[in-house]
């Protein structure tokens, strides 16, 4: 009898312990308990100690902390047909425990799948340049689209960040060449601007030196001092600017005198006509009958004898020319 009573008490104690352990639940601060009582949803409970019926109630604990999901690398094609590999990270948390249980079977898997598909869609609508330079805009667009999809599930997507964009090797080399060309262009532009400013300063310095000759002398002496400081065999003989100006003035004066001498020469001085020859405006030039005689006189090269008769040329009448020359003597 005593043994039977003792066994009954032990069994009753075990049942009470089981009921207590199943009825009393402790909910931590970052959790909420979604209770189904006979299949009907109850309000979320917690944190702290809650009492539930062991057989009647079913409890689902929901973690309200921020969850992190690392989107694996995705092989994507951008808007300008460049193949890239992109991975990202998503931060989300549960804001409504009841909807996260009633609206979707597993809110974590659903959020991860939406993040992957949205990443593919947005990268496909973006060019490579925008993907590399406008990262903040892409992250904001991803966060808005994913949050709109997961909001009916009681999920709040807070941050979506594109972590890495891996380009093909050929594209990396092309971008490196482009960056190098851009740096060369900037260097040339800066050098050209410096040359322009130096030329403007030199022009202003030349104007000052021209207005003040003493400044030119000081500059010459300074240049000589700089040359003398170096260990070289260069010898500099400075010439005063006044001497150079004197040579310039003398050359200008000589050029002016030579031009004046050329202008004073008589304009009508021409060669005198041959003796006995026709001149322009004379009777021989005006008389047609005299033209053949004049032409004959100019083209005939015969000799004249003492009695006034013309001697035949030597080529036509070969003869003793020497006798005639002797008689003439």
Automatic annotation (TrEMBL):
Q: Which family does it belong to?
A: Belongs to the band 7/mec-2 family.
A GO biological process this protein is involved in?
proteolysis
Q: Which GO terms describe its cellular component?
A: plasma membrane; side of membrane
- Locate the region Disordered: 255-329
Query: Which Pfam families does this entry report, sorted A to Z?
Result: Band_7 (PF01145)
Q: Which domain of life is it from?
A: Bacteria
An annotated Gene Ontology molecular function? peptidase activity
Which SUPFAM superfamilies did the record assign? Answer: Band 7/SPFH domain (SSF117892)
| Entry keyword annotation includes Protease | yes
Low complexity composition bias: which ranges?
263-299
Q: Which UniProt keywords apply?
A: Hydrolase, Protease
Q: Which residue ranges does the record assign to the Band domain?
A: 22-179
Protein's UniProt name = Regulator of protease activity HflC (Stomatin/prohibitin superfamily)
